[in-house]
Amino acid sequence: VYLGVDYYPEQWPIEMLEDDLDNIVELGCNVIRIGEFAWHMMEKQEGKYDFSFFDYIIEKAKEKNLSVIFGTPTATMPAWLANQYSEVLSEFENGQKRVFGGRRQYCFNSKKYQEMSYRIVKELVEHYKAENGIIAWQIDNEFGHEGSDECFCANCQNAFRKFISDKYNNDINLVNETYGTKFWSQEYNSFEEIPLPKPTITTHNPSLRMDYELFRSKSIEDFAKMQYELIKSIIPSVTVIHDFPGGGLSKHVDYSKVAKVGMDIVAYNNYPVWGGQKEPIKPHEIAFGLDYMRGLKQQNFWITEAIMGAQGHDITGYLPRPNQAKLWSYQGMAHGCESLLYFRYRGYTKGAEQFCYGILDADNKKKRRFNESKEFFHEIKKYKKFLEIPIESKVCILYDYQSAAAFRIQRQSILMDYEEQLKEFYRPFFERNVSVDVLPIEADFSKYDLVVAPSMIIWTDERNNRMQNYVKNGGHLVLSFRHGVKDEFNNLTLGEELPVGTTDFIGATVWETESLQDYDAFKVEGLNDLAGVTGVGGVFRDMLKVSSAKSLLKYTDEFYKVFSAATENIFGMGKVYYVGCGLEPMVLSKLFEYILDTVNIQGIPSPIGVEVAARTSEKGKMIMIMNHNESEVVFGDTTLCGYECRISVE
Ligand SMILES: [Zn+2]
Fold first, then answer.
1. Among the residues of 410-530, which ranges form H helices?
2. 597-628 pLDDT per residue, tens
3. Ligand 1 centroid to 202 CA: how many Å?
4. Which value, to the nearest 10 degrees, does the dihedral of the CA atoms of residues 282, 286, 287, 288 take?
5. 429 Cα to the center of ligand 1, angstroms
6. C-alpha 55: how far from its chain's center?
7. If we measure between CA atoms, which residue out of 629, 597, 584 comes closest to residue 611?
8. Who's near 339: CB < 8 A, 6+ residues apart?
9. Is the model's pTM score more than 0.90?
10. Cβ 569 vs Cβ 445: under 8 Å
11. How far apart are CA 136 and CA 210, in angstroms?
């Protein structure tokens, strides 16, 4: 377990180092993260490497028994590099080149940038090859953040054509056939004619755009893999991490694929509040983000940037209330974080992140946030052995990069937000304190008692078979509206009823479908085991014509009251549920109450806003009770203050 701060010694007078490190030790830290944005300090001129500043920092850190996480500096190129080799700069979709300044302005497909990155990482890691003070290497910083996942430059144009050519066996006719380019006379005679999906009149071909989404991700996967393999080839035993930013399911990169090829341990930069937000995201949404991180490699993760103060570049908003940011740190640990660092030791007086408040402000006085961080570190240390236990869940939620991309390309309903749908289906479990693994569709889900795959619009035979085998063998699966509408090339399927290949499985057919412009566009009414339940739905609805399934909900409006809104079907030894529409949280909660009963999963009842998590080992059981409310709450014999976390061991 590593506990620490992100420290940027290059931003401060060197005379402050000694005191800073003493204070970091006083906080209870055993690690600092350094180096990640300091390329120019390491290579002031091309090929002239100098790591002496960091030699000194590492030496001093070791004197205080502080270990180091060292970041490769490739997220921020030096100005000389941008000026000497302008092809490394990425482009906006309108063809405008990103200029030097800001950060992450590089093109992942620039051969020059790949080469320059390779060289600095190689020099750096070889320099510290025998340095036992470095316990982990972090590659780059926040892949895909702030729009850096997209680039429309000439490097990317060429690489995209190569990507398509490789994928379709260099057969341009196969591309035409697959994309359906007869439509609007878009047939290509050669790969050189294929455009990037830059702005044009109306919209690009949906298959072309799906390939672009896969290509974007592959570009980042390859860049991460290059750094990972290079570091491992120099120091095979060292731990390599990467710090992912939030919002991963909306980015043009598949984090789970990057995690697979680019790191040993996933790290997360957890910002429940950022920029001008009036209030933090909801506790279940924070929890979803943490479980999603744990699911990337299906193992515990690190938080390399936890917040203490308000955050933002040009605009800041909500200041976490006393103990609230500390509570988020506990919540991180409750969801499988093993090591945590605060961003950052002290907010810099200069530069674009002047208003990213750290543990200390520019006044350099130890105040509330210093004390809270210190309390957190000193308390959580006591439970070290529990934090390293893997989290066992009986439920998993599956997501799919291609389905997320399909909804980015064609939103279909203006209210359709794939990530939001996943969080809506996550919420009923969070409210019952039932642990959930959030996993990519490629993961093996056969061991779970209950699997939930919301709005998985992309079907493949392989997916259909895996899901059906899972249920056949006794599993319980929940699907929801717009399931199985598109093939992997983002096209509809001729001669197939919806969901494709799944109608016998769910015991119903989607007869018609409607996109809605409200969350409360229609009423639903419970049937059978949900008799008595009434509520509203919206976003989208599938009109379900039932064959072997049992109806659990139906629509009530004149034209559509003959159709089911949710069904349950017995298939082999298990059951499959189909939720045909967006539902208000109360109705979805009732539905899951019924399903959880069926699979015999008991949660832990708790007052609203009180989260309970447990970790069990042969040595005992650790229980964390977290009050996300600002006011006092009584839970059993425990009274918790606002934003308090109470830990006990049985
Ligand atoms: Zn590019």
1. 418-431, 461-472, 503-506
2. 999 999 999 999 999 999 988 879 999 999 99
3. 23
4. 100
5. 41
6. 34
7. 629
8. 1, 2, 3, 4, 31, 302, 303
9. yes
10. no
11. 36
